[in-house]
Design goal:
This protein is of the alpha/beta class. It is built from eleven helices and six strands.
Amino acid sequence: MHLRETFEVSERRACRVLNQPRSSQRHVSTRAGKDAALVEKMIVLSRENPRYGYRRVWALLRREGWAVNKKRVQRLWREAGLKVPARERKRRRLGSSENSCTRRRAEYIDHVWSYDFAMDATEDGRRLKVMPIVDEYGRECLALEVERSITAHDVMETLDRLFTERGEPDYIRSDNGPEFVSKAIKRWLAASGVETLYIEPGAPWENAYSETFISRLRDELLNREMFVNLKEAQVLAGDYREHYNQSRPHGALGYLTPTEFAAREAEQLESVQRLSS
């Protein structure tokens, strides 16, 4: 086309000079039309989950029945100009503790739970305090409490509800915040048969599972929503917890959701028990 317009020659002559078949000038690619529906779905998933990269979107597509491989999704992702979240720099480990998540690692579901706090605010400037409780092995968010204030008594009430619903874990890991190290909660946990793992002061990386969950929570919810009031924050937090457990593929779980991973672990345990009986 460039030669024809520049030198005002026919298509036949331009192709002869370039030694190019004339049929190549009439070929219309069908790839764009073939991939249109897939790209449209990828864009929808990206808008619904703006912090997801192509790998997590690929996992969602596979779950919905799209027969597509990861490399194809990556190519279309780049061609569509979709955002790939930048990789975070690795943190250098600055300290150690016998109670850190690397020294005392969870080995099965309900072996180790961890909890911590995150802070936010409603649009009137009033404080919100958020407390997630996470199962470290299965990455499941067991509770996501949002209140103006959360005391040691409130922590005990939430834990008591979880203990009734699913039983006590072997350990609970936390930092040395006053809500977690109060004499009342330490006595109550000891009476429940749950051992406490307090990380070294000033070393939040030793409670990495809670820190990671809070980072995702902040990135995918807290930094995206302006909460009108406490009730709205509680409702949206509940929706996020359900999405995180049941719909969000987790890279550390082979892109299964925490709910799917827990079901697979239960099936494997049941198979082992049948074989041993």
